[in-house]
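Tutorial handout. Part one gives the primary structure; part two gives the three-dimensional structure as tokens.
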Amino acid sequence: MKSSIINSIKSLPPLPKTVIEMQRICNDPDSSINDLIKTVEQDPMIVANLLKAANSPLYSFRREILNVSQAVSLFGMSMTRSIGIGNSVRKLLNVDMEPYGITSDRFAEISSMQAALVHEWYMKIDRLKADKLFLAAFLQETGKIIIASDVIQEDLAANFKSDIEVTIDIARVERSYIHETTATVTAEIFTHWNFDKEFVEMIKFSDAPAKAPDDVKEYSTALNIIKTIIPVNNPLGEHGISYGLKKAEDAGYDVTMLQAAIDSMLARIRA
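Part two.
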């Protein structure tokens, strides 16, 4: 890995105390949803992002969500943690996504779309796996922030952006510029922040699921399918959807469940 990428990761500040506390609560079997609500309420930024997510068309709750208690109760502890961590991480890293041809807000939207799609899909397969994948999908593109910063510092942003705009293989473009991909950089970021090994590895191998250890291969495959369908340069485009469905079929999934989740998301977004 490039020394500049390594140094950027080593220099990252620690995660906010609220995020660390959310992690602790969600990992503690004796903690309750009320413990999480009290913690979230102490952080105005997380409150704002949680309410924004709860009222977005991605989740289509049947009523307007006006407070933290409602949002956490509807999302559940795992999804609340994921949304809180994801938005805090992007704020912490001071996002500039111009080399990828998108704004920081659009980057956040695409991460949310990936998380929402994988969760809706996997809830029909395995609820526990759905919760794990929601957090991973929400955070799997984090490495793009470091890559974008490095490309800008190397004065390669214009060329990189031109290549990203026309590619159907973002990972290949990233390798050609920094010899790494978002997956490997993201894995290093969350290793730096002491996330558990399973979480790190399911993201690390999401560009090459066939090489993943057996215990995370399914997760890495699902993440690869999701970012194929919702890439940052053309989310939910016709080609990406077709290619993602083909990958799902090749991996042995019942593609009707994935297609139903895609159709549901498209209907909500277009409504």
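Part three, for discussion. Residues 3-270 form a domain with the Hypothetical protein af1432 fold (CATH 1.10.3210.10). The chain has one domain: 3-270.
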